[in-house]
Description:
By secondary structure, the chain is α/β, with parallel strands linked by helices. It has two domains: 2-200, no CATH class; 207-603, Alkaline Phosphatase, subunit A, CATH 3.40.720.10. It is built from 25 helices and 19 strands. Helix 11 (174-181) packs across helix 12 (183-202) and helix 13 packs antiparallel against helix 24 (576-594). The model has no long low-confidence stretch (mean pLDDT 93). The protein binds (2R)-2,3-dihydroxypropyl phosphate and manganese (II) ion (MN). The site of manganese (II) ion has 6 residues, from helix 15.
Amino acid sequence: MLLAVFLFWVKMYVVYKFIFAIAAENTVQELILLFSSLSSLLFIFGIALFTKGKMYTHTVLCSAVSLTILLCSNIMFYGFFDDYLTVPVLLQTSNFSDLGSSIRELLSYRTGLLFMDIIVLWYVARKWPQIIPKDKLSIKSRSVYFVGLITLFIVHLSFAEKERPQLLTRSFDRKILVKNIGLFNYHVYDVILQSKSSAQRALADSDKLIEVENFVGGKRKPKHDLFGIAKGKNVIIISMESLQQFVINNTVNGQVITPFLNELIQKSYYFNEFYHQTGQGKTSDAEFIIDNSLYPLDRGAVFFTHAGNQYVATPAILRHYGYYSAVFHANNKSFWNRNLMYPALGYHRYFHGQHFAANATNSVGWGLKDREMFEQSIQQLKSLPRPFYVKYITLTNHFPFRLGVKDQIIPPYDSTSSTLNRYFSTVRYSDEAVRYFFTRLQEEGLYEDTIFVLYGDHYGISENHNKALAQYLGKGEFTPADVVLLQKVPLIIHIPGQKAKVMSQVGGQIDVKPTLLHLLGVERERDIHFGEDFFSPLKEQFTVFRDGSFVTEHYIYTRGVCYNRNGEVLDVTHCLPYIKKARLELRYSDKLIYGDLLRFLNNR
Ligand code: GP9
Ligand code: MN
């Protein structure tokens, strides 16, 4: 049995390195990868310790064969899709019909090699039958064995968690999961995720949808004169990585941080009371909110946990109006499970990492630099059917905000936080990249017929850097109310030829979908959104955060305390009516997602 574990362990490492091509950035990561499969192998092969004699041999061989089949399936799947198997993928059997011929091709000598260890085991068992235990292991030895492997698992997991904080709760990328916890643990994790959401889904019925519909009924606002002013135009959404509002119209060491965005605001609708509402799913949560006008979940990324749901997202709605939709983002396609979630949202195409040419000189930090991404996308953008609904996701302004000296238009700031210091330089870089993009669109004749929505996806400067940020903003210490106000991100809606206006209505990412659809002249009866049209004079001045905090025209509520907009503590009764409302907002949105209730809407 130990020989089986050892051989399989070596096999896994070889597969990780040479087939899945998992790269480690340092020795700790390499060790994490090396040990990632060991505890699960010890566990599965450990079942043989409950047997003896012939049964023992059979159990070891059966375990080896089953695990190898699972491994091979993953390798084949990886060969086609550059991704690992998930339960929903296995259930989508319709996909497999196309694969038949390719599977035969992939069943090469390499696949044969993967069964080598089993042949060795079989041979060893025949040749040296004396090594097969004649008696079962004592309960005590078995307990020591299993306690040992569980300890190994926990130690390994804590190292992995240290390398990748919130590895399991955020579940951001299958590749990262496999690299850190190993393929077999990943499958167990995936099955748990899946069964949790299937159970909640199974218990839901269409009456629950009616409850939600009644709740959001009042959010639909009557038409006003901006209805349809952008009818039939292309839409370009730009998700601006980690862009917070405090850099807009601001300077650092006397230099303007976002000159292009400031100019653009002079020709656009600019929303200065606009907040991000993301949870652990960060960028993907922002995308989710923008396209669905639903709240993200309180734990995990809804892109990951509920990609199998039915949605009524903006790209899907716009399909009915002849729109073609696509996303440009130069990262792994499975990051945030985008490759599975985008089709569920109705996107036609995803231009991901593999569609871009990244190398050491045109990349930094998380990957391809923003300017390069825009540049390399233009030809594809030009060739898309029109009108299009296209989303760009920038990346350079991502923590840890690294940037080569040559690209630093403004040098880093000089506070106690090197993160904040670097942030200004990367924001400035991204601002310039967007300017370049607009110039290129004008050159290509793509500007006039397009409307633009630029939004900050979430905060970039976390609370760990509050001291330095407060110093920069000329404040003493931040109160919890200040921290809420720091969740402001820019929202710019630019319609070429339209007059500029600063909009000070309180709102959040949840309001983008109804606002945009109104401008595009789209009226859908069968849609549920938790946001409201920003341009409606009847819009409620209220925005809710994922943790139940909220902001209104007059109040800020967070961590159980009610403040006025100057940050002075008030009696909580001022906030009471909104506290209840905020809870209901989140509860109904969660119900909708956990129960996959929109499937009843689509079936009506
Ligand atoms: C990854 C990018 C950044 O593709 O969207 O994700 P984040 O860490 O900001 O959620
Ligand atoms: Mn982000």
